Amino acid sequence: MQLNLVGLFLLRAVVWFAAWLFVWYHLGSLITLPVSIVTKSVVALFFPSWAEGVEQSEATLTLLTSLAVPGMVGVPTGQVAVFSPEVGFLKYGYGLPLLTALLFASDARYLFTKVAIGAVALLPFQVLGVCFDWLKQLAIETEAVSFSPMAREFIAFGYQFANLVLPALVPVLLWAVMDQRFLVSFLMEATLVEGSVSDSGCPKGR
Q: How many Cβ atoms from other residues are within 10 Å of residue 170's Cβ?
């Protein structure tokens, strides 16, 4: 049975995503580096009073702070620990292999140029996810920083949105913008396939 454009694209996208996910995972430290550099500037700009820098270990980013948090597990009685939240970048960075897989699956023109542009375009959203993860740990889990109730609600919402929505949604939107030629063909055939299925389900008159 010959696959239609929709089925072939979905199959190719899954195969390419698995392949690029493997490559991306093994290049995690290198791919995390730009995010590490940008987040260091962001936290220094917005939280200069307690953010002291960002440390990268493989694909893990640690926010170095001067925030003392008493009563932490493993800290001897009477001593105060400095809290430095950690974030595994990979849960925010899988948009790059997803975008790359979609571009390869649709045989996009100027393929590698679009991948490079996409990597840069994804960077702000990845930084946003990492920063909201740090803030969630600081403001909600440990209350190491005092935020207003409204600010805490905003941080909780920002974390959920940056964690659950943006990593998957933004690559798809970027692909739709970068490969509109294929998207039009894809939507037209998807509509035709849906129409033919609906027609085949209708009872025929005698």
A: 19
